[in-house]
């Protein structure tokens, strides 16, 4: 289900004329060497906002750690962790700023 939500969100973001990179690779820099660690950000919007899409029973610490890692590696200050598997959309959105809720 995540892929369906991701495609719909991508479409809506494009309709707003936002600059959106979907499934953007995020390399790890280790001792000045660029390593492909397999990290992929669901969305990088306007080169400022990371959005990670989930469709799970409940968000957990692993999901938050994923967004925190992406924020650190991308040097973005703001992230959204969105779980579409909720009755109310607002209950599935977590805002992450500089590694904090």
Low-confidence stretches: none
| Number of domain modules | 1
Helix content: 25-40%
The backbone outline, from C-alpha atoms, is: globular
Termini Cα gap: 26 Å
Largest sheet: 5 strands, mixed
**Total number of strands:** 7
Q: Which sequence of SSEs, written as H and E, runs from N to C?
A: HEEEEEHEE
Classify the secondary structure makeup into a structural class: alpha+beta
Quick structural overview:
28% of the residues lie in helices and 35% in strands. By secondary structure, it is α+β, with helices and mostly antiparallel strands.
Describe the overall structure.
The chain has helices at 2-15, 61-74, and strands at residues 20-25, 28-30, 33-35, 40-45, 49-54, 78-83, 93-97. With 101 residues, the chain is of the alpha+beta class. The chain has one domain: Lambda Exonuclease, Chain A (Alpha-Beta Complex). The protein is globular and about 45 Å long.
